[in-house]
Amino acid sequence: MSALFERMAIIGLGLIGSSVARVVRQHGIADHISVCARSPETRQAATDLGLADAVFADPAKAVADADFVLLCTPLGTYKTLAEAFAPSLKPGAIVSDVGSVKGSAIRDVGPFMPDGVTFVPGHPVAGTENSGPHSGFAELFDRRWCILTPPDGTDENAVNTVADFWREAGSEIEIMDAAHHDLVLAVTSHLPHLIAYNIVGTADDLAKVTESEVIKFAAGGFRDFTRIAASDPVMWRDIFLTNRDAVLEMLGRFTEDLSALQKAIRYKDGEELEALFTRTRHIRREVIDAEQADPDEAPEDTY
Amino acid sequence: MSALFERMAIIGLGLIGSSVARVVRQHGIADHISVCARSPETRQAATDLGLADAVFADPAKAVADADFVLLCTPLGTYKTLAEAFAPSLKPGAIVSDVGSVKGSAIRDVGPFMPDGVTFVPGHPVAGTENSGPHSGFAELFDRRWCILTPPDGTDENAVNTVADFWREAGSEIEIMDAAHHDLVLAVTSHLPHLIAYNIVGTADDLAKVTESEVIKFAAGGFRDFTRIAASDPVMWRDIFLTNRDAVLEMLGRFTEDLSALQKAIRYKDGEELEALFTRTRHIRREVIDAEQADPDEAPEDTY
User: Fold this and answer.
1) Predicted ipTM?
2) What is the pLDDT of residues A248-282, one digit of tens each?
3) Same domain for B170 and B203
4) Which of A131, A146, A204, B13 has its CA 20 to 30 A from that of B274?
5) How far is A296 from chain B (nearest CA, A)?
6) For the residues of A127-155, what is the DSSP string, one character each?
7) Considering only alpha carbons, which residue of chain B is nearest residue A99?
């Protein structure tokens, strides 16, 4: 089978970018990979790990001659990068990204795309709490969803090609409107991360009071939150800044519900507590049934 | 090595009770196990699984002749059960429990203990999201902390014996004041569970709006919360009702911090967001260093 692309450029070689490079290599999805990375250490890692045929600090040089350009940097860098590399794009090139917020991606990248170049916004819903070029692995996208959010009028062939790219990387494809994506992800991803960051921060303040006992007895449930709250700080800063409205909306609902729960505890309303806890228990089963969690995963401590 | 106890009684055969029975059998910690369970199904399971030498519906019958009685039922049942079995306790018997709140355990069980019987409150900080006699396993307590909170004046020999019991089950022992335990666990366990229950409830309401997309894209971070929020509803209802003051205090701090975070998002204060997310990242490392999480655990999706 011939490669989907002759030449591909990956801008940014963190967890996602380096996992993309690995799966592209392993599955032969592109014949040639150019990598652009800002730091000399990451460029060295790209070479050492054999993830690039050419390595550049300048995004404009990295994208020249590329059939497919994949933006894998934090959302806050999109505008500057798109402006920098747009003039060097080859006619007919396809540009995509992996960012967790699609409204801002379209707003920041779209306007810079020259005629004959198509931007297909994408979001592989996959990741770990680890960062950097050494943390990637080729199986990261396997059986995960990749959501594409092409604006109305986007060239269909380009959308299909990007879909094929992610399918070859192991993912399943879902196509939806950018605003809807940003709302759904605000619930399933952004709010959970915000809450995890917050509770770990609250507990950290208390750990200073309780002489590290918060760490010592973390197996009681807190531990799970520390994993999520170890995710990349810059990436997540940009997610909250760019998906601000949807996150604030979801946070409002969460706080409303939490106030009701607080009141139930204060007034010792055991029935209301038990009713909620019984309802939430079913959701776990639905998540497992949807094959988004492994029922056989090693039991972890929770209390 | 001879058994630590000749006769032991386990009241309640859920995840914890049945795991205790398994490890007692496997390590020969007691020669004879009496099990008390309310439901005929659980009593049948105790027999089928070979976890009991004798099975009773009546707690008073289960504790007769026992050297060691371990209460493994939800906190809300303690008072009624203690009152019911106290008159049948043998002189010199030791009574302990596994409840997640120690202040209420002392308040509800202590007063019923006859002269010559010692109550040593305990809390093995271990568990999974699964419930019932079939969900237990002998390794549950292995390398986990068991916290004992004997009130001032508790017989030292009895405390040492209960400590030996948990050491033989694989645990490490920590001794602390009940009020302090309840505060530490409010942070490391009760608040995380409350938050997880709440966010899963909020998302469930939204799932009805977004046509199951919340379930479909749960790998974005939400998934981890569903696991914790699948924990036993009655057990957790009782934890929040009995540790009300400490939970409300911690919830107050959490909400305060969340309001500050919400404000930072609203006013696009990227520096504050990044500072918090950088700080919380270190905590994960501390938890791993304290051997309360496995750095080699399979990477899980988080965004």
Assistant:
1) 0.89
2) 999 999 999 999 999 999 999 999 999 999 999 88
3) no
4) A146
5) 12
6) --S--SGGG--TTTTTT-EEEE-PPTT--
7) B303
